[in-house]
Amino acid sequence: MVQQADRSAATTKAILDAARALFARHGYAEVSIDQIAQRAGYAKGAFYHHFNSKQEVFEQVLDGIQAQLAVLVAKRAQSAPAAPLPLALARNIFDYLEGATHKSVRQILLIDGPMVLGWKRWREIDDKHFADVVRAGVISLMPDDAGAAQVASATRLMLGAITEAALSSGMSEDPATLIREHCASFELLLTGLQGAGASSPRRPRALDAASKGKGSRAS
């Protein structure tokens, strides 16, 4: 039984490794199940014994990439020199963006991922690996009296901003330069977030002005 489980695990890994290499090089649409099985060194039947579809393989490949990126960011954060918290968190985002736009994963994660899996599922996988980390960073920045609603809102906005930075960098002809620009902006945003927070959310002055304008037009 142990040997059978080991063989099954080895077959699964070989198929996932083969699929990842092919998806990264050719893109999801250009890769067939026959090609994946052939590269893995198995018959097509072995593929269907372990997976139901090419999309299922793709999802597992993408999930594995996100898991590896999460480990990479955590390891670099542990070994990084001490820095003010906004800078340290911006550096973590830099490490993620750099990894996400690497040529070995960019096609899978940032180009094919949202289209193949759909935006909702793609976001769910991202949240699975990074939502708690981003939330912890937000909590560490905001004052102790920041309410749960403020923390939740700030976390979701940060996740959205990081997602947009990853997608735009992944589509760029010069991702390295764009990543540096994004992370400089993230440092400013995080510095501002560090000074925010109160027992109840403060109403932005722009909203106050808009409300007053509506009142004056209605009168």
Automatic annotation (TrEMBL):
PROSITE patterns in the cross-refs: HTH_TETR_2
DNA-binding region: 32-51
InterPro entries linked: Homeodomain-like_sf, HTH-type_TetR-like_transc_reg, HTH_TetR, Rv0078-like_C
Domain HTH tetR-type: from-to ranges: 9-69
Keywords from the named record: DNA-binding, Transcription, Transcription regulation
Stored Gene3D superfamilies: Tetracycline Repressor, domain 2
Pfam families in the record: TetR_C_41 (PF21351), TetR_N (PF00440)
Transmembrane stretches, start-end: none
Stretches for region Disordered: 196-219
PANTHER family named among the record's database cross-references: HTH-TYPE TRANSCRIPTIONAL REGULATOR BETI, HTH-TYPE TRANSCRIPTIONAL REGULATOR RUTR
Protein name: Helix-turn-helix domain-containing protein
